[in-house]
Amino acid sequence: MAEEKEGAAAEAIIADIQKKITDAFEVFDHECNKTVDVREIGTIIRSLGCCPSESELHDLLAEVEEEEPTGYIRLEKFLPMMTKVLMERRYRPIPEDILLRAFEVLDENKCGHLTKEELVKYMTEEGEPFTQEEMEEMLSAAVDPETNTVRYRDYITMMVVDEN
Amino acid sequence: CGTSTKGQNGFVHLSALGTFKAAVLIQRWYRRYVARLEMRRRCTWRIFQSIEYSCEQDQIKLHNFFSYLMDHFTPSSSKERDFISRMLTEEESYKDTELEKLCDYESVEVLDSYTGPHLSFPLLPDHATALLEAFKQKQQLHAHYVLKLLHETRRHLMQLPNINHVSTCYSEEITICGDLHGRLDDLFLIFYKNGLPSPEKSYVFNGDFVDRGKQSVEILIILFAFLLVYPKEVHLNRGNHEDHMVNLRYGFTKEVMQKYKVHGKKILKMLQNVFCWLPLATLIDQKVLIVHGGVSDMTDLELLAKIQRHKFVSVLRGKKRKEKSRHMDSKVINGESPVGVDPPRSSSFPGSCLQPGLASMASRTELSQWVRQTVEEELEKCRRQVGFSETPGDKELTCVSSVTMTESELESCETSESSQGEWKQIVDLLWSDPMPQEGCKMNTVRGGGCYFGPDVTENILQKHSLQLLIRSHECKQEGYEFCHNRKVLTIFSASNYYEIGSNRGAYVKLGPDLVPHFVQYQANKTAHTLTLRQRISRVEESAFRALREKLFAHTSDLICAFKGYDQEETGTITLSDWATAVESVLHLGLPWRMLRPQLVHSTAGGLLEYKSWLDYLAVEQRSKEHIQSSLLETIYRNRSNLETIFRIIDSDHSGLISFEEFHQTWTLFSSHMNIELTDDGISDLARSIDFNKDGNIDFNEFLEAFRLIEHTHCDDKAALPTSDGC
């Protein structure tokens, strides 16, 4: 009896997750034919609460692309993959304190801030480099115009508040 | 610090975290942040669009209301009869239909105290630039000159064919602009970036010059002035908003009355007769077709070229009393083809149905001649029956206006089937939207025109040897957008259309090679100084406010829907059920699960206490506890329609209606909407507005009382025109 109830509850959870995924997918389904441009998949996955790196994203894409890539991803392939990702709680968002420590690693002098140039160097030359557009956009909010530095602790706090 | 944490995500050995890994972490985090912003931006856009279209759907409800009146309401007194006929006729007090006399400018005196620009005719380029300068200084053109300008414009437009033919060999480049919707700043920006119209610079303005924005009058004056100064280089297409019935609802009528007060009525009347003369399309080099809305599978350019376009003063027609004709009419209003309709009683109709696509060229000419003749006969019949004297040059009385005049008076005047076919050609051109799927279906969202697929586009282009269709009518985030394999281009020139930062505007330039070049812009300084996040937040706030109002307006239906999911009456439902229920009530096609975090703030264990959530929505509305809640909901839901109805009743455009008229409107409306409304209820409603204008109600005040408090943007507040004797 208890097992049945659990089974039903689990099904309900899965159904709920699938509706969420479908909703997010449909926002980008401009032609209303259950396909989205492959370039939007990253946005969809991230807006569903996941935080994959670019290379992880690449791996996910490989799972849902057609044998001969058409530039479009179909919902029927995306849905099972994404359901699994959410059920397994993969690519969880980064906790605030971990993020802070990442900034601290970049802050060699441990002075509590990065210069604009330092941030640009790290973001565009290391890791999975930003495009110019991404860099400019980050700078517009992160740099304190008076000191021309990035006070990363404040920046993180502000961004976290924004999200909530 | 040397602690290492092992979490689920594999944040192992932080102490060994090199700069590479730190960078990846930050970049990952940041990209997710941007993705969420992008999702919010898309959702906000969807909200605005679906609300905009559902508002247009209100127009259908308005028609239903009028037809309900005509079918069910038997006026019990002459007063009531007058009231109804006033709602359904265009103008009652004017018996004289000669336009010159009707809207004469001679009697409008320009006082010495007037400091605005003076116009003399024929207009010179200096006049046009003087107007631009004057409007930049927030001056207003005197009604005398406005009327004269409108007369001259009409005279000019009357000479133009339905489809303007333009060639790129005269002026090398042609600039095409889309919807402006009263945004003067955008027009200034376009002229600034692209240059003024001149013999070297041709322009096509693709309709929707007015409504929504607050400077529709100024835009019209400027466009008409340049049209007269450079008739070979400036071309105007009619949009669906160049229509007085639409203007009643979307703000242009209000703007004219506010700016011109006493003379406003004349100006509005004159405008009706200018709008109907605007050409329907422009054709560049026989290759690029420019229309405001789009096409349908019935669109026939040859037929369109022959229509007497000025007959269609308003494309939004009322329904007729007769059962048969109502059936016909509702089919046409829904955009279906007139084929398959029973032939009307008039005997002069041929047996075959009107199938322009099938008829051969020769017989089509005959057909159109016959059509014109028959329509003329019908017009005459209508006119005679209504008792209009046959004055020479009385061609301005349109088929539509005469029909609406006679609807309440007599029952036998029917519009011919052929003129309904013509009407459909025009509606399709002005109201249609492209869709990704193949085929052609009625545009139920807008209540007129069609959704046309890539196959319809292909057919039209091939049939007339065209290579591109340029249209407007829909707001696009980047100001322009291609579809149908780049065969259809939407161009939209009103930036910040929904809200500051919501979208860019654009114009397109075509040279002799007919390759489009785009220029985008955003006419608001504030938009540029905001960060991406701030811009999105601002637009989002606006969208969600509108959405919450919509939700509030459907409170009772929502409660019913929620209760359906709460069989055990716990007072709570799951968030998933919430999403499904809300969509089933509002039918906006929105991704509710994505929007939920902005709409629902407090949940306990994934469950929502729906009653308190609905109360929270209600709190935002101004408190009107003494008005019954279902009535409140009705007002919110139908505010646009009510406004339109009030404006129609307010035939002298004073902004005031008598308490009696107010009462009568409500009685009719509530019986149509099946609401229990007692006389006391109506009195309560009236009392909620502080009025002491000797028994009259300022309906603007009334409607304002039922709006959410909007935060005002300093940029948006248009400075009031200086009172300079206008």
From TrEMBL, chain A:
Gene3D superfamilies, alphabetized: EF-hand
PROSITE patterns: EF_HAND_2 (PS50222)
GO cellular component, one term: sperm principal piece
Keyword set includes Repeat: yes
A molecular-function term among this protein's GO annotations: calcium ion binding
Alphabetical list of InterPro entries matching this protein: EF-hand-dom_pair, EF_hand_dom
Domain EF-hand: 16-51, 94-129
Bilayer-crossing regions: none
Record Pfam families: EF-hand_7
UniProt keyword annotations, A-Z: Repeat
Family annotation (PANTHER family): DYNEIN REGULATORY COMPLEX PROTEIN 8 (PTHR46763:SF1)
Protein name per Swiss-Prot or TrEMBL: EF-hand domain-containing protein
Automatic annotation (TrEMBL), chain B:
Entry-linked InterPro entries: Calcineurin-like_PHP, EF-hand-dom_pair, EF_Hand_1_Ca_BS, EF_hand_dom, IQ_motif_EF-hand-BS, Metallo-depent_PP-like, PPP_dom, PPP_phosphatase
One Pfam short name: PPP5
The keyword Hydrolase appears for this protein: yes
GO biological process, one term: detection of stimulus involved in sensory perception
Family according to the record: Belongs to the PPP phosphatase family.
Function: May play a role in phototransduction. May dephosphorylate photoactivated rhodopsin. May function as a calcium sensing regulator of ionic currents, energy production or synaptic transmission.
Protein name, entry field: Serine/threonine-protein phosphatase with EF-hands
Provenance organism: Gopherus agassizii
PANTHER family to which the protein is assigned, alphabetical: SERINE/THREONINE-PROTEIN PHOSPHATASE 5-RELATED, SERINE_THREONINE-PROTEIN PHOSPHATASE WITH EF-HANDS 2
Reactions this protein catalyses: O-phospho-L-threonyl-[protein] + H2O = L-threonyl-[protein] + phosphate; O-phospho-L-seryl-[protein] + H2O = L-seryl-[protein] + phosphate
Segments forming domain EF-hand: 637-672, 677-712
The UniProt record lists the keyword Cell inner membrane: no
Region (Disordered): 322-346
Coiled coil ranges: none
Keyword annotations: Calcium, Hydrolase, Manganese, Metal-binding, Protein phosphatase, Repeat, Sensory transduction, Vision
Molecular-function annotations in GO: calcium ion binding; Hsp90 protein binding; iron ion binding; manganese ion binding; protein serine/threonine phosphatase activity
EC number: 3.1.3.16
SMART domains for the chain: EFh, PP2Ac
Broad class of enzyme this protein falls into: hydrolase
